[in-house]
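can u do me a favor
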């Protein structure tokens, strides 16, 4: 891979050039508030993913998480392109306590973050069976 051959300083320079001048305000990235907080990747890891089982995911969180939304996965990692775009979210699906689970890559549009009271989680319209039918995540072309 090309990244393994570039010195860190060169890689940093390329990254900074792609982002623009340091300190330049990017309004779309700065839209973080108490009502619309940002999420750190470390905070997302291990968050549960519940299935709405094909039901429409409400735009406004309900008073409590519906009991018919089963826990189908946990957030494992994020996949970001070399241009800084979020490509997908890796989830662990199936298994018990991580044994026998499979890692699959979901497009960001298939996960909706939700907070109900003190509980924070993600919701997907996919069922457990649909997650299990997805191909296992291939790490061949990602930096680890």
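np, heres the sequence
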């Amino acid at each position: 891979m090309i990244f393994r051959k570039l010195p860190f300083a060169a890689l940093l320079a390329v990254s900074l050039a792609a982002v623009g001048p340091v300190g330049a305000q990017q309004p779309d990235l700065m839209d973080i508030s108490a009502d619309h907080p940002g999420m750190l990747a470390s905070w997302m890891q291990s968050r549960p993913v519940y299935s709405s089982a094909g039901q429409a995911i409400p735009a406004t969180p309900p008073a409590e998480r519906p009991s018919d939304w089963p826990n189908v996965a946990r957030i494992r990692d994020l996949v970001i392109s070399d241009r800084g775009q979020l490509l997908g979210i890796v989830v662990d699906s199936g298994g018990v306590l991580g044994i026998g689970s499979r890692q699959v890559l979901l497009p960001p549009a298939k996960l909706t973050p939700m907070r109900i009271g003190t509980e924070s989680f993600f919701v997907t319209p996919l069922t457990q069976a649909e997650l299990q039918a997805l191909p296992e995540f291939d790490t061949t072309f990602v930096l680890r």
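The longest helix spans residues 8-19. hope that helps!!
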